[in-house]
Design a protein that fits this description.
With 175 residues, the chain is mainly alpha-helical. The protein has two domains: 5-42; 49-153, no CATH class. It is built from six helices and three strands, in the order H-H-H-H-H-E-E-H-E. The termini are far apart.
Length: 175
């Protein structure tokens, strides 16, 4: 808060002027608080739940069943960028990055599939806590625009094959 009484000129240094300066400082301090509170609601990361709902409504993002609030905040926050890039490979990579998916492959125009189907192969170990049911719903909503998305989970397994030399066996099974 600004101390207006300290900035008064010497000819305005009377008790009434100091009281008026103090009242003005209190009033403008309140106005500053109101403005700060309003500006804080514009930041989706720290806004109240009501402001978040308003942002989501403005951007056409409905909260999905099972979606946590932090994940919903991120989806609302990135909704404009995702909408601008929807249907593109870059947009798909962006939304997977928002959800923390680190390892994936994207296959377009796969033989034997319809032309608008995109296969997304995900490594379950690299999902970093992302809920695959929520990702399915996101792809359903996002894909309504122009493409269909199909998720596959890649399962890796380690297999060991031993090799060696086998010598010729004669008289096998004969006495």
């Amino acid at each position: 808060m600004i101390d207006l009484a300290a900035k008064l000129k010497f000819w305005m240094n009377g008790p009434q002027a100091r009281a008026a300066a103090k009242a003005a400082a209190v009033f403008w301090g309140r106005v500053e608080g109101w403005l700060d509170q309003s500006l804080a609601q514009a930041d989706i990361r720290v806004s109240t739940a009501e402001a978040l709902r308003q942002h989501a409504e403005d951007r056409g993002v409905a909260r999905l069943p099972g979606e946590t609030e932090p994940l919903w905040r991120e989806r609302v926050r990135h909704a404009i960028t995702v909408a601008q890039n929807s249907g593109t490979r870059a947009g798909l990579e962006y939304i997977l990055g928002v959800y923390g998916v680190t390892a994936f492959s994207i296959e377009e125009r796969v033989a034997g599939e319809d032309w608008d189907v995109i296969r997304i192969s995900l490594n379950p170990d690299a999902l970093s806590g992302a809920d695959t049911a929520v990702l399915d719903r996101v792809f359903q909503e996002w894909g309504r625009v122009c493409r269909r998305y199909v998720m596959f989970h890649l399962q890796t397994s380690v297999q060991t094959v031993f090799s060696g030399q086998i010598s010729e066996i004669t008289n096998y099974g004969r006495s």
